[in-house]
């Protein structure tokens, strides 16, 4: 748990010593590999950057920063958790608190497609850029690429993702691409998990950039997952999403998908940080067991 003294120190440092964040980034102990063969378990914490502040049935849960940091740190303290994926504000606060030593850190790059907005698919890059990821000593950059074939706003996002993949590859840093097919129903965007749409969008993502050597994918666990994954040879991490009050079926989808060789692990946020019973360690243990990792 973050103490009152620590949190006051963070607030004071932000106001009076902004350079302390860069110092913490430079001093951070880094891993010398991404995947050692046992897969990756990454905590996702970039939801608030896109205006998503609800979790676990609580409309403002993610909007409580100290509580959010407490939950992330609790997860990171579990030996099976490899790291975090987040926007710069959260990464920097975790750095200042010393929570990212020997952890994988992936910077979230585009969060401007605010949930529920009229421009939601025009997801411009507004968070980390490649230079910021490299300068901060991060291990990768994550980008969201939602595709609706009837919405022209998808195209600039696809192009920007291609540029980011090339830039990250030139820096020899992981590009984690989250390609998701979407369509509008009653004016609202909804994820499409039909096989053809999934395979088409994965194929587009796999072809992005001047090289795919450093590209990983981030995909939902869906029905017919083996056929979905047959569309690519790229290493892939499952996304968590919000499983709701009855997550058992989601856990079973994860378990089945993790048996596919190039599914290398999981990037989960709300299922880990805001479980229905509040027991973060129990959820991490469950996922760790699926992956053959250490439980506590």
Number of helices: 11
CATH superfamily grouping: Aldolase class I
Query: Quick one: overall form?
Result: globular
Q: What integer value in Å does the Rg equal? A: 18 Å
In order across it, which strands form the biggest sheet? 1-2-3-4-5-7-8-9
Percent range of helical residues: 25-40%
Which class in CATH terms?
Alpha Beta
Written as H for each helix and E for each strand, in order along the chain, the element string is HHEHEHEHEHEEHEHEHEHH
Q: Sketch the major β-sheet.
A: 8 strands, parallel, barrel
Which percent range describes the beta-strand content? 15-25%
What does it look like?
There is one protein chain. By secondary structure, the protein is of the alpha/beta class. It has a single domain (28-291), classed as TIM Barrel, CATH 3.20.20.70. Helices cover 37% and strands 18% of the residues. It has eleven helices and nine strands. It has helices spanning 4-16, 19-27, 65-76, 88-96, 130-135, 154-170, 195-206, 225-229, 248-257, 270-273, 280-291, and strands spanning 40-45, 83-86, 104-108, 140-147, 174-185, 188-191, 215-219, 236-239, 263-268. The protein has an eight-stranded parallel barrel, surrounded by five helices. β5 (174-185) and β6 (188-191) form a beta hairpin. α2 (19-27) crosses α4 (88-96). The chain is globular. The relative contact order is 0.14.
Key features of this structure:
296 residues; alpha/beta; TIM Barrel; 8-stranded parallel beta barrel; 9 strands
